Amino acid sequence: MSELRRRIEAASRRAAELPRVRGVFLEWLDPPYRAGHWTPDLLSLAGIDDPLAKRGVPSVALSWDDVRQAEPALLVLAPCGFDEARAQRAADSLKREIDAIRAAKVVVLDGSAYFNRPGPRLVDSLEILVSARTERP
Q1: Which residues contact 105 (CB under 8 A, 6 or more apart)?
Q2: What is the pLDDT at residue 118?
Q3: Quick check: helix, strand or coil at residue 2?
Q4: Among 28, 58, 53, 31, which residue's Cα sits nearest to residue 42?
Q5: Which residues of 24-39 are buried (b: 16+ CB within 10 A; e: fewer)?
Q6: Across the strands, what pairs with 24?
């Protein structure tokens, strides 16, 4: 447990050294579902301000227009149950909708491995989100 705490603190410190970013995390793509449950806490620790995320409640469906109106600089796509390759295929099939959001950066992640279940791997999830802020698209 102390190693997990150390990693959380290190990732949080790294995130705090950067300017916060306006982002949207989607847990499903067709239709888009906003972040819920524990994901908003991860986003906050990673320095991502998601105006659509709702802490502690299930995610709900939105429209692509809702996502566009949130004006995210960072769009994180991590569909429930999808590995990264499947998530990328889903994102590719919605290219027009995703491009219309005009996010400066779009990141496709493995929702199945890192975001969809509670547990120790959520520390990996936090580190991935912080890295998504700093790595070039």
Answers
A1: 73, 74, 75, 132, 137
A2: 83
A3: helix
A4: 53
A5: bbbbbbeebbbbbbeb
A6: 75
Q: State the amino acid at position 132 in one-letter form.
A: A
Spatial distance between the Cα atoms of 56 and 35, rounded to a whole number of angstroms: 10
57-108: pLDDT as tens digits: 999 999 999 999 999 999 999 999 999 999 999 999 999 999 999 999 999 9
Q: Which two tokens stand for residue 47?
A: 């320095």
Write the DSSP assignment of 76-129 as a string of letters.
EE--TT--HHHHHHHHHHTHHHHHHH--SEEEE--HHHHTSS-STTHHHHHHHH
The percentage of residues in the chain with a pLDDT greater than 90, rounded to a whole number, is 91
If one looks up domain 2-134 in CATH, what number appears? 3.40.50.1980
Amino acid 117: pLDDT: 83
Give me the mean pLDDT over the 10-36 stretch. 96
User: Which residues are within 8 A (CB) of 19 and not within 5 positions of it... i.e. 6 or more apart?
Assistant: 47
What are the C-alpha distances in Å from 107 to residues 2, 7, 95, 119, 120?
Answer: 30, 22, 13, 22, 22
Tell me the domain boundaries of the chain.
Answer: 2-134
- Single-letter residue type at 83: D
